[in-house]
Amino acid sequence: xxxxxxxxxxxxxxxxxxxxxxxxxxxxxxxxxxxxxxxxxxxxxxxxxxxxxxxxxxxxxxxxxxxxxxxxxxxxxxxxxxxxxxxxxxxxxxxxxxxxxxxxxxxxxxxxxxxxxxxxxxxxxxxxxxxxxxxxxxxxxxxxxxxxxxxxxxxxxxxxxxxxxxxxxxxxxxxxxxxxxxxxxxxxxxxxxxxxxxxxxxxxxxxxxxxxxxxxxxxxxxxxxxxxxxxxxxxxxxxxxxxxxxxxxxxxxxxxxxxxxxxxxxxxxxxxxxxxxxxxxxxxxxxxxxxxxxxxxxxxxxxxxxxxxxxxxxxxxxxxxxxxxxxxxxxxxxxxxxxxxxxxxxxxxxxxxxxxxxxxxxxxxxxxxxxxxxxxxxxxxxxxxxxxxxxxxxxxxxxxxxxxxxxxxxxxxxxxxxxxxxxxxxxxxxxxxxxxxxxxxxxxxxxxxxxxxxxxxxxxxxxxxxxxxxxxxxxxxxxxxxxxxxxxxxxxxxxxxxxxxxxxxxxxxxxxxxxxxxxxxxxxxxxxxxxxxxxxx
Length: 537
Description:
The chain is an alpha+beta fold and 537 residues long.
């Protein structure tokens, strides 16, 4: 503001300045994070479980990471970390010893201090085959740990490699006093209600199929946090109902808003903030290669040729997805951008299938082999309209080449159990891939089986050996061409029909401040969210 000379006296200027200062103070007060309020999140699916030592549900991981702390907090670049339980850490000159220095003010929600003994006990459980922890392979190069004192622990590695800090950090720290009481074999079976927690929130209640409630953990080490008093994950197994409640204000937050609704939210709902950014999630159709129909890579390739992925992306995702050609999404540094998509070519698909012995012998329009129709179930989860739409489109596309796909929708936990057990033909699903450029968790021969993530029973020994070489190299640039080749091998084998990589479509009520979702999790920094004071509820 420009004030002309002699336009007001000194007292008037002081009064005007006081008004501005008061207004500024008011704004500062409104923008200051304050404690209180409830966040209601709408979720389509309930959770498989919240015990980190047993669940393989990425959907559940976002929640249990609010309940349990790891040694470090992973940053959105997937390469660096910030302090959490450990306030500092360092590698020895030969990179074989990694020392963590723990905070002295971290405790479990039951009041027991969290010390290096908990870290040691967690590592022992993670390495023990009795625990059946799905991430055990991440600890394969860590030989042992040594507790120096209550707040210092050293991880000893068999060799140096790029992901030592990430591997040591992977998996939340579990309470030693519970591990000692129940033993490793039984620990993974414990319900979350029986576990003390260390994160910013603790369990309030869990009504299965209805709502999961988290409440502030008053013993959380960051004093004053979390700001939000309570978080309710409301289970609504129908996207239409979920969206209606978002627009009416019954829920405050929703991930994976249907792409076709984003324009309406942008134009007509100023009370809702949109967060869209690249993710590490891709959609796919998984062909169970343990089933004879899908044992041949050529058959799987023909099925991909018969599926118009571009049309699916255009009609269902409205620009919030791009075609996928790799088991790494582009956000991962090792992603190979040079792989060309399998072309949409129904004539070539029919030719390949004919060479594989599938022909329409009786003229009914369906391909047969050895007197048996090429027919299978295509599973997905109930309530996810996008995946149901994919089922319908794929069914119609495959019909044109004489293949009969029968869509089946199942409740989430039932779907997950069918897929994990291998008792299925094919599935429409998605992966949110790990932040480590390592393909073994999903694609290695060893990862097959109920406790692994290789749920299509894919096995290519060359993929395994090349991936092992690449993940052991300290120089990422030298590792990159090897990982490029691994991606090409997997894509050539077509264990999946890779559909697309998504952009986030997350929506949050604008009254919630401090919201910083990223490709790690929508709720990565939930302890920093707060509700504007005028609208606490």
